[in-house]
Amino acid sequence: MKIQLSEHFTYKKLLRFVLPSIIMMIFTSIYGIVDGLFVSNYVGKTAFAAVNLVMPLMMGVSALGFMVGTGGSAIVAKTLGEGEHKKANEYFSLLVYVTFIGGVIFSLCGMLLVRPVASLLGAEGALLDNCVLYGRICFISMPAFMLQNVFQSFFVTAEKPKLGLGVIIIAGVTNMVLDYLFIAVLGWGLPGAAIATVTGECIGGFFPIFYFARKNSSLLKLGKTKFDGVVLLKTCTNGSSELMTNLSSSLVNSLYNLQLMKYAGENGVAAYGAIMYVNFIFISIFLGYSVGSAPIVSYHYGAGNRDELKNMFKKSTSLIAIWGILLVLLAHVIAGPLTKIFVGYDAELFALTKHGFLIYSFTYLINGFNIYGSSFFTALNNGLISALISFLRTLVFQLSAVMLLPLILGLDGIWGAIIVAEAITLCMTLFFVFSQRKKYGYL
């Protein structure tokens, strides 16, 4: 039975509604790491390091898609909650069209920036050539990748999370099959990995356009619209936390790579890349839950239903606490096997990666609350607080920690920097939660 945004959510109903979004994010993470897995095992660690060096740039450029998706879906869901369905569809259409145009522009800019950015991060010789080759091919599909990020949020707002999951699965399976064919079978190396990624992202980004452009059974439909600067500004403001998260993460990841090049060389960058791939899968549970539950919060906020806001906040924080404990336990059980999958061919690199991941994993006790806290305020259309949480979490505190802790703890200071940053951020998140409780009525 279809679950509607307007319903009261029990734990069972809430999990049923958000599960497709969680699986979608996990699957997105899995097919996002397949390139690295095949490159590491079939092409070598220099090519693997190149993928990891150029990835922050691509994720930073694609951040506009996350911004429009999260910020825009909050506005559209709130408008639906207010009963303005025609206006909601106009907003939805405008945001999709703007994302595509922006994607084309940023695709061209990204191709030009790959070489100077990689060079700035210390790449030279074969490593630099690999960065440029992989990055320029991947930037071809930037418009589609940004649209994919937008539609991940809007499928939930349209009450079609399962369809969104289906699109991601098809795109992901395509990417993985082509990775195997192009790299393992045909021996195309790094270009093969990039072409596989481009193909998968085009499916994930362009198929939803065909669905929403025709008559469908969802709450949303692509159609005529008009330029609305206020809506665009509100979307950017409201989704600025997601933009900040991605841009800051890209910057901080680059700084991690610089520090690791200093303390551990190319092996350090490769180890961090493997840890990040596993981390993407783990935190996708929190990210998926935030994406899946945000439209519910926005809808009931628009409808003025404070009881349901209290219900959602209580259930969400309980689920995040349980998942955080389980993820730390799981990380310690599977650290060895997972590390072996990526870098088992090199004993020294294997030991370095496993040790780093065991330290890094304790962040899952904390970061779920910060991720949800930022998303929750975005859903309440309070982009300022959401952006502050993200800015402090992903830039200020991590930047400080990764610069200072290695001076005291050496390489272990790099692995543990994220834990310190998340713990300090949690204090700030709690401050905002309690200071805004009367205004929104979720406590």
How do the helices and strands follow one another from N- to C-terminus? HHHHHHHHHHHHHHHHH
| Coarse morphology | globular
DSSP E strands, number? 0
Percentage of β-strand residues: under 5%
Estimated helix fraction:
over 70%
C-alpha-based Rg, rounded:
21 Å
Q: Ends: how far apart?
A: 30 Å
Describe this protein's structure.
- There is one protein chain.
- With about 450 residues, the chain is mainly α.
- About 85% of the residues lie in helices and about 0% in strands.
- It has 17 helices and no strands.
- The protein has helices at about 10-45, 45-60, 65-80, 85-120, 125-140, 140-155, 160-185, 190-215, 230-240, 240-265, 265-305, 305-345, 345-360, 365-380, 385-410, 410-435, 435-440.
- Helix 3 (about 65-80) runs parallel beside helix 11 (about 265-305).
- It is globular.
- The mean pLDDT is about 85.
How would you summarize the topology of this molecule?
Elements lengths: L10 H33 L1 H17 L1 H19 L3 H36 L4 H14 L3 H16 L3 H25 L4 H24 L15 H10 L1 H24 L1 H39 L2 H38 L3 H14 L6 H13 L3 H27 L1 H25 L1 H4 L3
Helix pairs in contact: 1-2, 1-7, 1-8, 1-11, 1-12, 2-4, 2-5, 2-10, 2-11, 3-4, 3-6, 3-9, 3-10, 3-11, 4-5, 4-6, 5-8, 6-7, 6-8, 6-11, 7-8, 10-11, 10-15, 11-12, 11-13, 11-14, 12-13, 12-14, 13-16, 14-15, 14-16, 15-16
Keywords: Antibiotic resistance, Cell membrane, Membrane, Transmembrane, Transmembrane helix, Transport
Protein name: Multidrug export protein MepA
Main location: membrane
